[in-house]
């Protein structure tokens, strides 16, 4: 009886031992100082990913492996214990070095990496007409995600009372909220009851120390190698993607809504500009979630910016100079939907149909006013409803 039981365990035990040895041998090969099989040093082989529109969403493990194998740079400049890095801002005040806030002019705060990435901040700061009534303050830090921007706004709020804050949100990179490592460690949040719970701070000044304490941990490298090379299975399942994106949208709302509300209560006027180039259902849902959060805060506002930084600059400039709105919201939406008529999604085609029907558009305006929401949000809701009732190819 005992011998029979022993024999029944020999084969699976031998198999487990062989797999363990193979896993250890693979790890030794992957992380030894001597690179023996360069083709195996590919983070895509050991991590999952998925796409939103044309953009590939990857994980912390992918970034950590890329840095570990010298396939991506690691940023060591301007470390900050709370934000991860602070660009050219003063590390203590988190304001531009040498800035003296002029109480005679309204501070105009440019927050979000899009301002400097597109060069819009330079154009607005150099505009002498704006300087008569506004004091531009650039808090745009390259590589920052929405959570870092909101943390920066929270820490600088006492110095920016009465400011007009223009928060530029890159919707395509909203998944960075899930990340704790992008070229160097960054703060990260998880959803709490009403707000987000902050994790990972204080952050170490040396990113390599962080990698030593929190290395990539995708699981069994042997399994991932078999999965990617043999099964060609590298993309998350549809259900897993839906779950991650739903979690992401909930987290974005729990960060954005209280952050904007605190600013408005402190006397700040906050306008949120949404930049987005990707198309499709997941991309639309990200944008809807952000708009719903902004619409829930009295005193907040949104302006859609798909890929036109020039339009964003002119819209901001003309609004601040009280020269009247640059373009009405309906015209702004038409301009966005006219950029690539042949590549419109079914949802965008339905939105365009509503915009071109004056009577229908007026009904949507009335509903937006009655519900206290923006025309863009109500337009998308009506278009989504029509698609559900009468799907179009």
Q: What does the secondary structure layout of this molecule look like, with pairings?
A:
Elements: H1 2-31, E1 50-52, E2 55-57, H2 60-68, E3 79-80, E4 84-85, E5 106-111, H3 114-117, H4 120-125, H5 128-131, E6 134-139, H6 146-156, E7 164-170, E8 188-191, E9 196-199, H7 207-213, H8 221-229, H9 238-265, E10 269-275, H10 281-295, E11 300-305, H11 309-320, H12 329-337, H13 346-355, H14 358-371, H15 375-389
Parallel strand pairs: 5-6, 5-7, 7-10, 10-11
Antiparallel strand pairs: 1-2, 3-4, 8-9
Describe the structure.
The protein has 393 residues and is of the alpha/beta class. Among the domains are: 1-35; 327-393, no CATH class. 47% of the residues lie in helices and 13% in strands. The protein contains 15 helices and 11 strands. It has helices at residues 2-31, 60-68, 114-117, 120-125, 128-131, 146-156, 207-213, 221-229, 238-265, 281-295, 309-320, 329-337, 346-355, 358-371, 375-389; strands spanning 50-52, 55-57, 79-80, 84-85, 106-111, 134-139, 164-170, 188-191, 196-199, 269-275, 300-305. The strands form 4 sheets. Strands 6-5-7-10-11 form a 5-stranded parallel beta sheet, with helices on both faces. It is globular and about 85 Å long. The termini are far apart. Mean pLDDT is 82; it is low at 303-307 and 322-328.
| Integer-rounded radius of gyration | 25 Å
H/I helix tally: 15
Broad structural category: alpha/beta
What proportion of the residues is helical, as a percent range? 40-55%
Q: How does the overall form come out from the CA principal axes?
A: globular
List the main descriptive attributes of the protein structure presented here.
11 strands; 47% helix; alpha/beta; 393 residues; 15 helices
